[in-house]
Design brief:
By secondary structure, this protein is α+β, with helices and mostly antiparallel strands. It has a domain of 255 residues. It contains 24 helices and 24 strands. It binds arginine and glutamic acid (GLU).
Length: 681
């Protein structure tokens, strides 16, 4: 009996029955969850979240660019997202004379709003279960094509649960999206990479854009005749603030989770891929940081690249620690052992799937590592992207050279290519590369020769070579790229793809198997950059020994971190002044008592929603569907939640909408923007 009880408990613990707020749910199927949401404090209906008959919350949420979320907050197309989501746009409008990164940007009129070529936002028009059509033999490409209605929409069919379900997603895409406002980086990126993925956090991570449409409110390429888009729906803003325990819902586009993979994949991530990638990025970052500190122009040029490299670099480190702490590999192995026992004793159709997956992963490992090295130790050298793009007719050398330093690139090439030469299996090292190293005597000497001889290391050399009709394919950079591409094309990619598609097919079975093995568990479909709802509540958490974390931060914390000599912690003078005089006006909150008040301004809060990359910029909504804040990060102990969610400690981080409003009002002096917003008091 005891043994039986133990195994039930163990199974429950493994199966995740008690995992309170895990999950990212499909909006069109939210009816399955709505009772639970309502029990936890949601006061609206499933139809309010997603409807094809009437305007619903989904019509106020967009996929922003290629991997963030944004939300509409006015009848005139005003849109909120994160500062880090608009970062490359803010950077592209910045120079030493107009340093919007450092000083912020506030359009004082519609005419001053800045267009952003290449930036688009996508609204989900509808989603539809097409599993039966796919199973009946229809092609995904044909289904999507039909849904595009001759170019009116964009559409794709996405697999869920590893092909156990298929959904069609139809989007309307707007391409005239203009920058309206951004706070200075000392607010929008306060704490920089030091505070990134951390709590307590004091970042006002927001930026403001506006969507423009043609006179019929339809998508149109940029034109000064375009007019502000009139959305079907936008969010009312709540200035009431958040309390511990309050219901929160996040509506957005989470990118990737891998909740149902085997221990093999986690082992690969933890013990193979992450360490190699972290080490390579450490080298690149050290080089970039040194160059940025030496030259303010380089600081701007490499700001966006730096942020992107550092973001994943830090996340992988937290993820590895988290997987280690939770023992995810071992837990999954235990789970797999009991699955295997169950399959062998009662479900023979599943008895081969785990051994086959294990064998396939074993075979995949060298190819997966070769790909990691290819992407992190070879093609990260920017000269290689120049070589690859310059042969294409439509390459824009301006945008490349604007943010390019051949010195930085050279220093990085020396380090990462040396790592490639050392760590890649000989069959994945091009003979040409080895010959060149031998010819010059070292990787460093090879790199020096390459950078001296190539015509692609500067705008001037490139133009001169073009004028003299020099064939780019004769450029030494192109030759090296060609040698590596050939290795990738012949030795890495084909076998990798073959094994990977085997693995995907096996997961189709294993996913179904897990659902049969645990009939009472509710499985959310892994994130795949489609629109999802996550819900939870505002909650602090218990961290390392003796440390409890509160659920919100305030301006006091910004001032505690103030340090004028450090770029990332140099609080704007205006904010220092406001703090000194405690001139908070309508944005003050009292964190003291009635007898002994302590006035401050709220900045950020955490909650238990399950989020991932792509959820940046997502609206954080209260039980009435009003905007409480903008999601922008996860805490350090949550960085492994794409693979295992730990409801004790996993928290998403949001900037409090009141801090956004305070910044607009008091730092940007742009409170005219409030005129088009709607507030609930
Ligand atoms: N960690 C957040 C996300 O994954 C925010 C990144 C931007 N901030 C930064 N300091 N790089 O994207
Ligand atoms: N900052 C992330 C993003 O850009 C979201 C935070 C996360 O990964 O949870 O999408």
């Amino acid at each position: 009996m005891k043994k039986f009880l133990f195994s039930i408990v163990a199974l429950l613990a493994l199966s995740g029955v008690a995992r309170a707020d895990e999950g990212m749910w499909l909006p069109s199927l939210i009816g399955d969850k709505i009772k639970d949401m309502q029990a936890k404090g949601f006061r609206l209906t499933a139809e309010d979240i997603y409807s094809i008959n009437q305007a619903s919350m989904k019509d106020a949420v967009v996929l922003f660019g290629g991997g963030c979320t944004g939300e509409l907050i006015s009848a005139e197309g005003l849109l909120l997202t994160n500062h880090h989501c608009g970062y490359s746009q803010i950077q592209s409008h910045s120079s030493l004379e107009h340093d919007y990164l450092t000083n912020g940007f506030w359009a004082l009129s519609r005419e001053e709003e800045l267009p952003n070529p290449g930036l688009s936002v996508s609204f989900l028009v509808r989603m539809e279960d097409v599993t039966e059509r796919i199973n009946a033999g229809e092609k995904a490409a044909d289904i999507a094509d039909e849904a595009r209605e001759d170019g009116r929409y964009s559409a794709s069919v996405e697999s869920l649960y590893y092909g156990n379900q298929y959904f069609l997603f139809v989007y309307e895409v707007f391409r005239d999206v203009r920058l309206v406002a951004a706070p200075p980086s000392s607010i929008g990126k306060f704490g920089g990479d030091t505070d990134n993925w951390m709590w307590p956090r004091h970042t006002g991570d927001f930026s403001i854009f506006r969507i423009y449409a043609d006179k019929d409110n339809k998508p149109a390429a940029y034109s000064k005749d375009n007019v502000p888009y009139r959305p079907k729906k936008f969010f009312t803003i709540s200035t009431k603030g958040v309390e511990q325990g309050d219901f929160t819902m996040i509506y957005g586009f989470p990118g990737t989770t891998r909740r149902y993979v085997t221990s093999d994949f986690v082992d690969y991530t933890l013990n193979h891929s992450n360490p190699v990638k972290i080490d390579l990025r450490t080298k690149r970052l050290n080089t970039i940081i040194a160059a940025q500190e030496a030259d303010p122009e380089v600081r701007i040029m490499y700001a966006s690249k730096h942020a992107n490299i550092a973001n994943a670099w830090k996340k992988w480190q937290g993820e590895s620690l988290g997987l280690e702490r939770l023992g995810t590999v071992q837990k999954k192995q235990t789970y797999e052992a009991s699955f295997q026992k169950w399959a062998e004793s009662s479900r023979p159709e599943y008895k081969d799937v785990l051994p086959q997956l294990h064998a396939a992963y074993d075979e995949l490992l060298p190819y997966a590592m070769a790909r990691d090295l290819y992407s992190e130790a070879f093609s990260v050298v920017e000269l290689m992207s120049a070589a690859s793009n310059a042969t294409r007719g439509n390459w824009n050398p301006d945008s490349f050279y604007k943010n390019y330093s051949a010195e930085i690139d050279r220093d990085i090439a020396v380090q990462v290519w040396a790592t490639y030469a050392e760590q890649a299996e000989p069959r994945f090292v091009p003979a040409y590369f080895t010959e060149q190293i031998e010819k010059y005597g070292s990787v460093e000497a090879l790199v020096d020769a390459l950078f001296a001889e190539s015509n692609l290391t500067s705008r001037e050399k490139f133009e001169a070579a073009k004028a003299a009709c020099v064939d780019i394919k004769e450029d030494p950079a192109y030759k090296l790229l060609a040698a590596f591409s050939e290795i990738s094309r012949n030795e890495i990619t084909p076998r990798y793809n073959e094994l990977n598609s085997q693995i995907t097919t096996l997961y189709h079975t294993y996913m179904q198997g897990q659902m049969d093995f645990e009939p009472n568990r509710i499985f959310f479909p892994d994130a795949n950059l489609t629109l999802r709802v996550a819900y939870g509540s505002v909650q602090g958490y218990e961290g390392d020994d003796a440390i409890s974390y509160k659920h919100f931060t305030t301006l006091d914390g910004i001032m505690e971190k103030d340090s004028p000599e450090v770029y990332d912690y140099d609080v704007p003078d205006r904010l220092r002044e406001i703090y000194r005089t405690k001139d908070y006006g309508r944005w003050a909150i009292n964190t003291g008592t009635e007898e002994k008040p302590h006035l401050t301004v709220p900045v950020a809060f955490i909650a238990t929603n399950h989020t991932t990359g792509g959820n940046s910029g997502s609206p954080v909504l209260n039980g009435d569907g009003e905007l409480l804040g903008i999601n922008f990060d996860r805490t350090w102990l949550s960085t492994m939640s794409d693979l295992e969610f730990d409801s004790e400690v996993c928290r998403n981080i949001a900037v409090d909408i009141r801090f956004v409003l305070f910044t607009i009002d008091r730092i940007g002096e742009a409170d005219y923007l409030f005129d088009e917003m709607v507030f609930s008091e």
